[in-house]
Amino acid sequence: MEQFELTPADEMKDKLWGKTGTPERDEMEAKLKEEVHAYLVGEAIRKARQAQNMTQEELGERIGVQRAQISRLEKGKSVITLPTMSRVFKALGIATATLDLGSLGKVALW
Predict the structure, then answer these.
(1) CA 60 – CA 70 distance, rounded (Å)
(2) Least confident window among 3-7, 94-98, 104-108
(3) Mapping DSSP to helix (H, G, I), strand (E, B) and coil, where does residue 107 land?
(4) For position 36, what pLDDT does the model report?
(5) What kind and span of H or E run contains 106?
(6) SS (H, E, C) 64-100
(7) Over the stretch 47-75, which tens digit does the pLDDT of each residue have?
């Protein structure tokens, strides 16, 4: 029987993205973190919209963008600015939001 050689995931990450602490690895991890956050915000938008039985087109009309833009936001494929996030969530009936800055306290976003 043929033997397979397994490579630990940490070794593969080092090989693909560079060792921990290198600029390449830091950049890749920052980009990955940004993409995860975009995905999570998109999921929140989608869930809030669907809870109201609203279509992407209807939400787009409420904030003045096309359905395709709502789709990109929900998929985390588009960078969302705070002003856009505010318009989206206000259109979904979420009137307030805060940013938790840990030991510095909380800041009202809208």
Answers:
(1) 6
(2) 3-7
(3) strand
(4) 94
(5) strand 106-108
(6) CCCHHHHHHHHCCCCCCCHHHHHHHHHHCCCCCCEEE
(7) 999 999 999 999 999 999 999 999 999 99
Query: Based on the number of CB atoms within 10 Å of its own CB, is 48 exposed (0-12), middle (13-18) or buried (19 or more)?
Result: middle
Residue 39 CA to residue 42 CA, distance in Å, equals: 5
**pTM for this one?**
0.79
Question: Which tokens in the block code for residue 76?
Answer: 């985390």
Q: How many CB atoms lie within 10 A of CB 58?
A: 14
Q: Which amino acid, one-letter code, is at 30? A: A
Q: Is 32 exposed, middle or buried (0-12, 13-18, 19+ CB in 10 A)?
A: exposed
